[in-house]
Each structure stands twice: as C-alpha cells, then as structure tokens.
Queue: 2 jobs
Job 1
Amino acid sequence: MSGIEDLRNKMDEVTLDMIQLLKKRTQIASEIGKIKKNTGKGITDESRENNLREKVISLSKEIKIDEAISTKFLNFLLNESIKVQSTDKQTHLSIFLKAKSLEMQGKSIIHMEVGEPDFQPPDIVKKSLEEVFDKGFLKYGQAKGMPIFREALAKYVSKRFNTKVTQNNIIVSPGARFSIFSAISTLLNPGDEMIVIEPAWPAYKDCALNSGIKVRTINTTIEQKWEPSLEQIKNIINSNTKMIVLNYPNNPTGKILDDKLQDSIIQLAIDNDLYVLSDEIYSDYSKKKWKSVLSYNYEKSIVTQSFSKSHAMTGFRIGYGITNSTIIEKMAKLEALCLTNVSEPIQYVAMKALEADTSDNSNTVQNRLDMLSQKATEMGLDFVIPDGAMYIFARINKEGFNGVQFANSALEKGLAVAPGEGFGDYKNFIRLSACQNEEILEEGMNILSKIMSEEQ
Ligand code: PMP
C-alpha cells in the first residue's frame, strides 16, 4: 500500500511543479505580449512556433515520449500564450460597438467597418412575419431544423450549386457563425490543429482557441494577390492537422481562388484526410467565376451558408451548414445542448425568403464595390481589386501606421473603419465595407481622404 502512496505523492509533486512552471511560462508570455504590442508585432509567429515545435519533437525522440502527445501538449501551451496576449485585440466588432455608443450620444457615424447591408430583407419576409403566427410554426422542434425548411434548403442548394443534397445533409443554425462554431468544436479535439489562411474573419481562430484547438496560420500577402501557395499549406500539415478553413469569396480581401489552386487544395485535404470547412456566405457576391466546395462531393467537407448577407437578414440570425449526415448528427447534438432549436417562426420566414429573387442585392453590392474600388484607386490606396464579397482590404503605406489607432481617430471624425489587426497580422491595413449607398460611401471616402492628407 505504501508503494502506491509514495508513487501518488510523487505524481502530485510533478503535477504541482508543472502548474508552477505553467504560471512561470504564462508570465513570460504576458511580458512578450507587452513587447509585441509596443513594437507593433503580431501575436502569432508561425516560424518561432515552428522552431519550438522542432525542439519538442527532437526531445520527444530523445527521451522516448509519444510525439503526438508532446506536440498536443505544446499546442495547449501555445494557446495559453495566445490567450494572455490577445486580451485587448481590437476587431471590426470593437469599433462597431464604439460607433454604436457614440451614436447613442448623438454623434453621426458612417459605418464602413461592419458587413451589414443597409437594404431591407425581401418583401416576402415582411408578409411571412405576419402570417407565421397563424401558420403555427411556434413550438419546440428538431435541433437540426424544421424538416419542411431543411427540405426547401436541400432543393435550393442542389439547384443553386449544381449538386445533390437532401434534408439529411442540412443543419439550420442561428447564423452561419453557429454552424462554424459547432463544426470546429464537435469535429476537432483539444490539441488538434486547424489551418486558417489569413487575412481571415476572426471567429475561426476564436472558435478554435475556445475549444483548445491550435490554429496554424498561413499568411498571404497583397503581393501574392492574397493567394496561398500549396507549398505553404503542405509544409504545416502534420499528424495533428485535422481541418483546413476556406472562405471564398473572402472576407476581408474579396479574393476568389482560381479553380486550379482550389482543386489542388481540396486534393491536398483529401490526401491528408482533413476536414474542409468552407464558409461560403458571400457566394451571392462574386464578380468572378466561383466554385462551391460542394462540387467536389468530398465527404469531409462542411459548407456554411447564411441569410445575413444574401438576403440582408443579419438580425434574424439564420444560416445553415451542409455536410454528410453523420457530421450533421454530431453538430445537431451540440445545437440541441446549446439552443434546443432555432426559433421556428424565424425558420419559417427564412424558408419563405428562399422564394425571393435577390439578384438586385448582388447587383447593388457589386456596383458599390466597383465605386468604392474606383474611389480607393483615385486616393492611391494600396489594395487588390476584390473578386467578390463586400469589402476592400487596403494597406496604408505610411511608416508606423497603426490600423487600430487610425480606426479610433477616424471614429472621432464620424467614420468607422475596421482595423486590419482583427484579421491577422495586418496592422497597417484597414477594411472598408461597401454596405451603404453610393452617396454615403462617397462621403465616407471623402472623410478618409481628409484624415489621410491631414496625417501626411
Ligand atoms: N463568415 C464570414 C466570413 C463573415 O464575414 C460573417 C459575418 N460577418 C459570418 C460568417 C457570420 O455570418 P452570420 O451572420 O450568418 O452568423
């Protein structure tokens, strides 16, 4: 008996030592975070992480510990560092919230920070809101969504994306955001790795961090026209890599990948048995040929869609995921746990919205984006003309430019823009959204031009 007691005491000691070391490591991470902030460095440094990863792998070989376990443990430690260093990360949402509170104080603000179309949802939405009470879609329901709605979505998706899905391939969620969250957190385990191509919508990273999943970042650049190289992706795949996230048309760059590159990325994912999470909520806003990931019929792909942008229904909070029925069941379990189900009246309204012709929305956004691109070019902003989506991601080529400071000072002058930092290591970028009418956008760009010339 004393043998086991001794061993247990030793184990306790080791565990407590590890906690002490964790505290020490976290304190160092926090100090590094302060230096990074003061010097304008990004939080994640892939090459530095890789360096440490190699050391861990080599030690694992030397002391004969399973490499898969030690690298998962490393991923846990790296995520802890990221958490302490990201406490005051500023994104488009922080600027949006500041803008809202300034508006409450009576200030008028031009919103070019947020991706929220100013136009109304289709007329049929208003009519359906009136009729839903009598239609009786008012109760608890299946976590996956109402069968009648999923059936309608399956037909819509099959026709729109030239594929063949049934209602068993669909899960309804409160916005695409929740389908993204549930795909990441139900399919991956703590310590697993997920590839994100940056610049990227911040929630992919945040969902992963929340679930103890390590994000491996592929940095793309304006010089590369925001195109990731296959080599870059190949180089970071290891036995812990479980998913790659794609988002084309892209927020914030508006990029659409060429077919050939997209085909190769999907093939790489298939060869390495990775899930492909393809967030396609901007598919209605593409100016160039665009191919849905659904067209590959890859059983480990999860496509997310939403009514937020295509139907201007941001506040309804309704979107959906499309994938194989086994994954749907897994995601549905989490949805049942968190939400029971998406509000039935909202599902009914969205089902009716599918009948609307939204091509005017696509044209409106396209025209605004063209106008914004033209204005930005005239102003000499450094950006790649977007292939789609609703944004321009522009670099400000000025020594020491900081997007967060700029966004905060622009707010005082009545213009809200999104700092690049929210989308990755892009401190000298800002994102401008084309969600207001031409007149307002023009006014916004004039304010921007004035601020920039004042800052020369
Ligand atoms: N994906 C991307 C790329 C987005 O930009 C957004 C919202 N801005 C979402 C998903 C979330 O959309 P929803 O409103 O459907 O949750």
Job 2
Amino acid sequence: MSYETLEIAMDGPVRHVRLNRPDVRNAFNGAVVDELTLAFEAADADDATRAVVLSGNGKSFSAGADLAWMKEQAGLPHAENAAGAEHMARMFLTIARCRKPVVGRIHGHALGGGSGLTAAVDVAVCTETCVFGLTEVKLGIVPAVISPFVLQKIGAGRARTLFLTGERFDGREAQRIGLVHRAVAEAELDSAVQASIDELLSAGPAAVASAKELIRNVAHLSLEDAVPVTSKWIADLRATDEAKEGFTAFLDKRRPGWMS
Ligand code: COA
C-alpha cells in the first residue's frame, strides 16, 4: 500500500508513521483521515510490529484539522457532513485502540486535532517549547471528536478552562497537566522517544496489549465491580506462555525470549 499523505517505515519491530503534509503543518484532510486509519489498522494486524511511533515531518507535528477541508465538509449535505465527521472520530479511535503501543513524537505545534492526536497515543513525548492548544473555539467550533481522548488524559476540570478559552500552552504545561508523558529539550526529543520504545520492547508483547485493554475495561468500574474483572484478568494472564517465560527468565536470571 502506498500512501500520499504519510510516510511509513519499519525500523526492526518499530513502525514509524509520519504525517507528511509539511507545507500545511501536517493539517489533516479526508485523505489523511483515510490513510491514518488504514496505517493503524495495518500496524494492529502486523505481527512483526511491536510498537508504532507517530510523528510529523517539517516544522510542526500537526496543526489539526485542515481548515479548507473543514469548510468544504461544512458545505456538504448534512448526512455526508455527519458521515465524514464520524470517519474522523473513528480515526482517533483506531489509533487509541491499536493493540500495538503508540508513541507520539510531538514537536513544533500540536493544535486542535494535533493536541487530539497527542491525547490518542499511549506515550506522548514532546519538546518543552512545543505549542499545544484546544483552539477550536477561536474558529467558532469545539474540540468535539477529540474530546473523549483529551478528557481521558487531562480530566474534565482542566478541559473546562482549555476548551473554553482555547488558550495555547507549552510542552512543560502539557506534561504538568498529563497531556504528555514527558517534555524534553529539543535536542533530546529523539533519545527520549527511543527510551520509551526501549521500555516497550523490553516488555512482553502480549502483556503490553493486555495492559492497554485492561485500562479500557477497568477505568470506568467501581472498586467493588473491578474485583471479578481484575482477578480473572491476572488469573488468565499469568497462565499464558508469555507469562511463564517472564517468570522463568527472572528466576533463571536471564533475559526473556521476547528480548532476544
Ligand atoms: N488547516 C489548513 N491549513 C493550515 C492549517 C490548518 N489547520 N494550519 C496551517 N495551515 C497552512 C497555512 O494556511 C499556511 O498556508 P500558506 O503557506 O498557503 O499560507 C501554511 O499552512 C503554513 O502556515 P503558517 O501559519 O504560515 O506557518 P507557521 O509555522 O508560522 O504557523 C501554526 C503554524 C500551526 C501555528 C499556524 O499555521 C496556525 O495557527 N494554524 C491553525 C491551527 C489551528 O487553529 N488548528 C485547529 C484546527 S481545528
């Protein structure tokens, strides 16, 4: 499959997905929505992929939705407008649900949907000077399709300020409020991304996928309701071949097979 708006490259078990519309700061239009969805479905289905890095070529990670495309969509008959919006919402869901861990390499600007993509990945690493913002209100719209992903990372309280004011904030603040995992100096961005990848690759692949699913299944439960779910989860997981290998490797003082 060849992509027009993305660059895809494998580096061993790591799949790099790079937004590639640098002239418009990687704003996403319908083609990007289609291709990102396909790229993350492909990553999910590929046994050779153990982690995905999402990044943007050029000056900025992403300036969010392409405003020329948004204007075009707004002019369509309502059913088509609604179908396009659902397709965009499903792109974020496909990224967030990908069974392979997704690391975001965020630099320059990550505005509107760019902040949304940052929220949809598992481990976001950004530069301290990167500019974020849920800026949609400045355009007379709201951060609707990205809201579930952003709310999961920063909570409703912080979202009330940031969604309503549309104010911009830097990478340090993004780390403080939990939108990103780490904010680092520009020169350290690639090594910080690599450090997260190394951590992910040293973990059992099925365990990483299970950890992601665990969060989705448990986050909304009461402590009481969680008991049957989490106890079954660990009972099932600790009986897998991967867990047996993990326990045995530790007790034998050797590296587990998935690290060789
Ligand atoms: N949609 C469509 N085009 C966009 C875009 C967007 N979201 N963001 C940037 N572009 C285009 C600009 O129109 C410009 O096109 P031109 O070269 O034909 O004039 C080009 O990308 C470069 O943008 P520019 O503003 O000159 O670059 P910059 O590096 O100085 O600033 C941003 C980058 C991201 C800070 C600035 O472009 C911006 O604020 N964009 C809007 C972001 C936004 O509000 N996103 C929310 C979308 S819901």
